[in-house]
Amino acid sequence: MSNPIAFHPDGAIFDMDGLMLDTERPYLPLWSLVAKTFGWDISPGTVQRAIGISGPDVRALFLQEYGADFPYDAITAKLDELIEQKFEAGVPHRPGLLVLLDHLARLGIPLAVATSTRRKKALWKLEKAGILDRFQVLATGDEVANGKPAPDIFLLAAERLKKDPVRCIGFEDSPAGLAGLATAGIRSIFVEDMVKPPQAVLATVWHTCKDLSEAVHLIV
User: Fold this and answer.
1) Cα separation, 217 vs 63, whole angstroms
2) Rg of the chain in Å (alpha carbons)
């Protein structure tokens, strides 16, 4: 939609990795490094296509791309170990996050996280980022039958907020997430990051921001 008008949502739903937390940039090069230790060369494009989708779908993507012999489980186990070491002292925020969260808190808008990450890992990341207590509810990848771009996780987040999806607003940085918000009937804000969505997905977006702080003037 063009020329957006400021909106007062009944609830706000946030993706996590890459949108609020700066976890995807270090994760992408680690994929290639770890895969090489197992004797595999991974295309950066394959890793980018995995952004925003659920764990089972990521697994299916890699096995389809590299074959049934690809040691996906061993590689991801090592990746998880390295990521936990890297972020043990704290998970960095994406620009403008606290500015926007403070604004929404002043307005009294309840917040949800809708992440493809499994619940245990999501809780750990949000705690390490110091923002877990900002959110009233979480909906995680292991709690829905269909991951993004299906709308399930966003509908679950709205249900847990006890809000009508059409009265919510959603923040995403991935094509899969934006597509899921559109299907759920949730007004979306695309925060630009590493992957540019296709035009068909961009056409569903309510507004695009360079960083999260730009969204402040859209929500009243």
Assistant:
1) 43
2) 17
Contacts of 158 (CB under 8 A, 6+ apart): 11, 13, 112, 164, 165, 168, 184, 186
Q: For residue 112, which amino acid is it? A: A
Beta-carbon contacts of residue 18 (< 8 Å; ≥ 6 apart): 24, 25, 51, 52, 94, 173, 174, 193, 194
Give the residue carrying structure tokens 């996280």: 113
Which residue type is seen at 187? R
What amino acid occupies position 20? M
**Model pTM score:** 0.89
Which tens digit of pLDDT belongs to each residue from 75-124? Answer: 999 988 998 898 998 999 999 999 999 999 999 999 999 999 999 999 99
Query: DSSP for 81-146?
Result: HHHHHHHTT-PPBPTTHHHHHHHHHHHT--EEEEESS-HHHHHHHHHHHT-GGG-SEEEEGGG-SS
Q: What angle do CA 97, 193, 114 make, to 5 degrees?
A: 60
